[in-house]
């Protein structure tokens, strides 16, 4: 918890050593950046700051301490003999919680609150990123070995998923997400108050926020949280076709690409629902083809001139019909052989019994 | 605006709240529970079709006392549906109709996460039973992580006096008590929202209160 030194900003606060960790503020001695309270405090500065792209505002306060004695903290972190304590109070006037980033603007490293050596939640090398509750406030504090600059912090709306040590102004590729949303923003722009960013997130195309790998894209959410889509069937049943293989699209494609997959997915489902064992598509297609040739030949047999003309026009010429004349006898032989084999297999299927019990015992 | 209605556990009454909020806010309710559809469908293209790019989102919207974009109910449909496309669908419907409510599935996986990532705000539906609160906290963390601010909490199916303040403190948002009312429970089946059939009831007023909390976020 950040030390609370009183927010009343009374002038006589300056007389109090701002640094001394008392039992009240640091009861377990967990604040590693404890500095011996022998320093003399410098005049306090304070101010207010409005957030960029957010309605959250901040009150900040800066206390400087010059150290006369050696500090407890590791010397390499405290190169100067001056430590600045920054205290920030964030106010969120909106009825929705807002995430903000509070970045250190001083010229030194952020010595952020730690608990047993581990940084407290939200703190990173450059500052803090976190949420301010709806119509609420949040208080933070950190130390920085640097000279004072005012304001000591920068307050911005946090990019979704932003961590404090990421730069806000990355010039990445225009993310599809913002672009998709920008249409709706333009349409609704008249209805919304531009300064109220809370309900709009990345919409409105803020140029600095077009991040393809923002953790808020659907793809990132699927990666981190796991796709909950039911898995495809991977076992081939002897009677059925595996369902789902063809129905699943690995990535989003243009409309024309998707339709094929969806179609075959639907087809395989139909076959599964058929229940009975059906021949594979290749066999059915072959038989259909033969049947159409036979039908054509039947129509040509004893046909009038007009009928024959019609059939031959459909068939695109004389050649297919002459072809049939040659090949149909052979086709008949093939079909009979196929029928014989199929009957044979059917008889064997009826006759055989799998010794299930014995097999189970063996297994 | 896109509002997500979420709640950690199944069976807390998310869909009922989403349906009634849809009436109060004049929004299209999208049933995003891709594996277990909650809202009634009928003949015609549904969200499975839209997510597999077999149909345009606008074709799948059904008119009624509350306009719905229902989900399909087949396993194959669920397999073929691309949950990542939900964002585009919600944005497209919002462009057409202004307000969208996404009825999220239970749990913390991507099928719940993607609607939260898409949404501008969330209404958390919470059962006042203790065991359900832990799940509500987890969902609330997910909502926070995905930047879907919680606009309000629906403390649903309340019978006895619930610990409203404690819940508000834990979940960090204002809570509205929705009493256990058979009229509310029957809304989806019968089709008429409680704000229509019993506008003076405590249930209807609770729904209005939640709707106002959402409207405040839009401004």
Give a written overview of the molecule.
By secondary structure, chain A is α+β, with helices and mostly antiparallel strands. Chain A has helices at residues 176-188, 218-225, 255-274, 281-300, 305-314, 319-351, 356-362; strands spanning 40-41, 45-50, 57-66, 82-91, 98-104, 114-115, 118-119, 127-132, 137-144, 153-157. In chain A, a hairpin with a 6-residue loop joins strand 2 (45-50) and strand 3 (57-66). By secondary structure, chain B is α/β, with parallel strands linked by helices. Helix content of chain B is 44%, strand content 16%. Chain B has a 7-stranded parallel β-sheet, with helices on both faces. In chain B, helix 4 runs parallel beside helix 5 (110-118). The model of chain B has no long low-confidence stretch (mean pLDDT 87). Chains A and B meet through helix 1, helix 2 and helix 3 of A and helix 3, helix 4, helix 5, helix 6 and strand 6 of B.
Supply Rg of chain A. 39 Å
Q: Indicate the low-confidence ranges of chain A by residue numbers.
A: 4-24, 26-41, 75-79, 164-212, 239-275
Q: Which stretches of chain B are poorly predicted, pLDDT < 50 over at least 5 residues?
A: none
Taking strands numbered 1, 2, ... along the chain, how are they ordered across the largest sheet of chain B? Answer: 3-2-4-1-5-6-7
How does the helix and strand content of chain A classify structurally? Answer: alpha+beta
Q: How far apart are the termini of chain B?
A: 10 Å
Q: In what range is the share of β-strand residues of chain B?
A: 15-25%
Mean pLDDT score of chain A: 67
Determine the fraction of residues in helical runs of chain B and give it as a percent range.
40-55%
Shape of chain B: globular
- Using DSSP, what is the number of strands of chain B? 7
Strand content of chain A: 15-25%
Average pLDDT of chain B, rounded to a whole number, is 87
Order of helices and strands of chain A: EEEEEEEEEEHHHHHHH
């Amino acid at each position: 918890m950040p030390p609370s030194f009183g927010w009343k900003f009374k002038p006589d606060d300056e007389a109090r050593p701002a640094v001394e960790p008392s039992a009240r503020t640091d009861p377990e001695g967990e604040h590693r950046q404890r500095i011996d309270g022998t320093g003399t405090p410098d005049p306090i500065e304070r101010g207010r700051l409005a957030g960029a792209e957010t309605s959250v505002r901040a009150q900040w306060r800066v206390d400087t301490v010059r150290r006369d004695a050696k500090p407890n903290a590791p010397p390499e972190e405290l190169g100067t003999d001056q430590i600045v304590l920054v205290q920030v109070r964030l106010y969120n006037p909106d009825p929705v919680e807002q995430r903000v980033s509070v970045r250190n603007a001083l010229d030194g490293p952020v010595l952020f609150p730690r608990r047993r050596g581990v940084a407290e939640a939200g703190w990173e090398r450059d500052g803090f990123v976190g949420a301010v509750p709806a119509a609420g406030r949040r208080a933070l504090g950190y130390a920085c070995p640097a000279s004072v600059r005012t304001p000591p912090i920068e307050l911005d709306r946090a990019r979704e998923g932003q961590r404090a040590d990421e730069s806000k102004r990355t010039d990445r590729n225009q993310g599809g997400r913002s672009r998709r949303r920008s249409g709706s923003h333009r349409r609704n722009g008249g209805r919304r108050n531009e300064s109220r960013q809370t309900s709009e997130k990345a919409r409105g195309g803020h140029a600095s926020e077009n991040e393809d790998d923002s953790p808020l894209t659907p793809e990132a959410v699927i990666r981190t949280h796991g796709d909950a889509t039911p898995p495809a069937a991977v076992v081939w049943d002897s009677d059925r076709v595996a369902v789902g293989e063809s129905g699943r699209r690995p990535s989003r494609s243009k409309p024309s690409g998707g339709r094929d997959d969806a179609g075959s997915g639907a087809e395989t489902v139909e076959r599964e629902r058929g229940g009975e064992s059906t021949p594979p598509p290749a066999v059915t297609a072959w038989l259909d083809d033969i049947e159409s040739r036979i039908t054509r030949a039947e129509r040509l047999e004893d046909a009038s001139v007009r009928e024959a003309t019609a059939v031959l026009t459909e068939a695109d010429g004389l050649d297919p019909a002459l072809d049939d004349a040659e090949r149909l006898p052979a086709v008949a032989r093939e079909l009979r052989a196929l029928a014989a084999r199929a009957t044979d297999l059917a008889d064997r299927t009826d006759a055989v019994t799998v010794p299930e019990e014995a097999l189970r015992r063996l297994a | 605006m896109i509002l997500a209605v979420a709640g950690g556990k199944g069976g807390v009454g998310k869909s009922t709240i989403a349906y009634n909020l849809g009436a109060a806010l004049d929004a299209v309710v999208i049933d995003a529970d891709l594996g277990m559809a909650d809202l009634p469908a009928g003949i015609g293209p549904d969200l499975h079709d839209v997510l597999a790019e077999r149909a345009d989102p606008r074709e799948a919207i059904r008119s009624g006392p509350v306009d719905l974009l229902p989900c399909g109910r087949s396993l194959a449909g669920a397999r073929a549906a691309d949950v990542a496309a939900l964002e585009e669908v919600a944005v497209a419907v919002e462009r057409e109709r202004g307000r969208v409510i996404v009825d999220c599935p239970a749990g913390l996986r991507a099928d719940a996460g993607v609607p939260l990532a898409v949404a501008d705000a969330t209404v958390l539906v919470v059962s006042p039973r203790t065991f359900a609160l832990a799940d509500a906290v987890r969902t609330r963390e997910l909502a926070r992580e995905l930047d879907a601010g919680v606009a309000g909490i629906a403390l649903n199916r309340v019978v006895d006096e619930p610990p409203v303040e404690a819940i508000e403190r834990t979940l960090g948002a204002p809570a509205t008590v929705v009493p256990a009312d058979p009229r509310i429970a029957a809304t989806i089946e019968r089709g008429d929202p409680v704000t229509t059939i019993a506008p003076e009831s405590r249930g209807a007023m609770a729904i209005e209160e939640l709707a106002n909390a959402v409207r405040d976020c839009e401004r």
